[in-house]
Structure formats: structure tokens, C-alpha cells
Amino acid sequence: MNGKIVNMGRSIAFNIFFFSGSFLCSIILLPALLLPEKKCAQVVSDIYGGYITFIEKYIMGLTLEIKGLENVPKTGAYIIAAKHQSAFETLKLPYMRNLGYPAIILKKELTHIPIWGWYPARMGQIAIDRGSAMEALDSIVRGCQQKLASGRPVIIFPQGTRTAVGAKKPYKAGIAKVYRNVQVPVVPVALNSGIFWGKNAFFKKSGMITFEFLPPIPSGLPPLQMMEQLEKAIEEASDKLVAAAQHN
Predict the structure, then answer these.
(1) Cβ proximity of 185 and 234 under 8 Å
(2) How many structural domains does the chain have?
(3) In the structure, how many helices (H) and strands (E) does the chain have?
(4) Which pLDDT belongs to residue 1?
(5) Contacts 24+ apart (CB under 8 A), 160-165
(6) How far apart, in whole angstroms, are the C-alpha atoms of residue 212 and residue 191?
(7) Is residue 148 situated within a structural domain?
(8) Are 140 and 128 in contact (CB under 8 A)?
(9) What is the pLDDT of residue 105?
(10) Ranges of the chain with pLDDT below 50
(11) CA 109 to CA 117: how far, in whole Å?
């Protein structure tokens, strides 16, 4: 019971600092909008991402363990295909310096948020209008081609949306079309963030979230074969990480 009360208190404090701090960072970082795309991404990621990491650790009691970075290609373009259980990974993966500040696919509606919404566009994120499935898919492919050609990795959540721990949702064909068109390796990422930061959850749990970068799937495979390998790798590794977190 005491642990639940502590987590409730931490969650309330974290949410206050998260929303107020995000607004203040949006104001303070306005000059970064004048910088070139990649430099803007670097400055915003280091300052805002650093702030979020600080309050996660010292207010919420959340830390991040990263495994398998040796599986990330050191040169050339690649796609990061990650499990999506929480908002946590959207606040971490795009801001990782050792990934070269990858571009992430996000909903276009987020760019309409006053002030804050200016940053994704300037940082070179790939904003998608989800009104038409075909148009959305085409814009994803075009956006990924552009970013990969410039040397930036791209983050894709193959299930398309956050999926609660234990829930099963199909992997969407969008990543297969991107893979077929861009001809770069895919790095699967397993995680267990949903144990600590549930989908749309106001109250969170302290603990250590794990991201595991798995061996890359090479370019040039038939897209359906790539999809089968990707889903198997991510789901099996994520289930193991979830089980380990629940055991602790």
C-alpha cells in the first residue's frame, strides 16, 4: 500500500513538472528554430530530452537500461522498428545521441499544438495526415526516403499505435512498403515500458525500463519474410523483458 501511495505522489509531481516544463522548454528553446534541421534536433534533444530524463529519474524514479547497442549499424542509413507500449519510447528514441537523433513518424495533429508543434517540423520529424490510409502510407514512404537519404535513421512503430502489455495487434504493412522502397536494414527494438508507464496512464510506476536493440534484418529480403522475422524477434524479446520486469 505504501508503495502505491508513493507512486501516486510521484506520478502527480511528475505530471506537473512534465507539462509545465514542456511548456517552459518550448519558450526557452525558440531560438533553436532558427538553426538548421539537424542542429535544431540536437539542441532540442539534448536540452528538452535531458530535462525529461532528469524528472523521470529524480521525481518518478524511472530509469532506462539499454541493451544491444552493438547491433546498431555504425555507418549508413537504417530503420529502427520498435515495439510501442508507452509514450516513454517516443520521449527517448528520437533524442538518443548515439543513434544520431533519428527522425520519427508522428501524427500531423501534434504539429498543430501551439508553440510546441513548431519543433517537430523544424527538427525534421515525419508528420503524417492519417485521414486517408493510402495517402498516409505514401507520405511515410516519401518522408522515410528523404530522411534516410540525408543520413538520418528513421523510427517506425510497426503496430502503428501504442499496444498495452499482453494485447496482440497486427504489424501493419506500411513498414514492408518502406523496407521494399528504401533498401536499408531494419533494427528491431524490444522493450517493456508498458509495465511502468501504461497506455494513457496518469499514474506510473518507478523502476527500470529496458530497451533492447536486436540484430538487424538485412536489406533485400522479400518484404513478407522481413515482416515475419521482425514480428517474431520483437514479440519474443519484448515478452521476455516484460516477464523479467513483472518478476522483479
Answers:
(1) no
(2) 1
(3) 6, 7
(4) 57
(5) 161/84, 162/84, 162/85, 162/86, 162/87, 162/194, 162/199, 162/200, 163/83, 163/84, 163/85, 163/194, 163/199, 164/85, 164/194, 164/198, 164/199, 165/85, 165/192, 165/194, 165/195, 165/198, 165/242
(6) 6
(7) yes
(8) yes
(9) 82
(10) none
(11) 9
In sequence order, which residues have a C-beta less than 8 Å from that of residue 186 and are 6 or more positions away? 78, 79, 80, 81, 175, 179, 216, 217, 226, 230
Is 6 a domain residue? Answer: no
Residue 65 is predicted with a pLDDT of 94
Query: What cell does 229 get?
Result: 522475422
Per-residue cell: 175? 513498414
Q: Give me the CATH number covering residue 182.
A: 3.40.1130.10
Residue 133, pLDDT score:
66
CA angle in degrees (0–180, nearest 5) for 221-226-230: 150
For residue 95, the enclosing domain spans: 63-247
User: Quick one: how far is CA 39 from the chain centroid?
Assistant: 20
E strand or H helix at 126, and its extent? strand 126-128
pLDDT tens profile 137-172: 777 888 888 888 888 899 999 988 888 888 888 888
Task: Determine the Cα–Cα distance for residues 95 and 222; give it in Å rounded to an integer.
Answer: 31
Q: How high is the pLDDT of residue 238?
A: 96
| Distance, CA of 196 to CA of 106 (rounded, Å) | 23
Give the pTM. 0.89
Q: Is residue 216 part of a domain?
A: yes
Residue 183 maps to a domain: yes
Cα separation, 14 vs 8, whole angstroms: 10
C-alpha grid cell, residue 78: 537504417
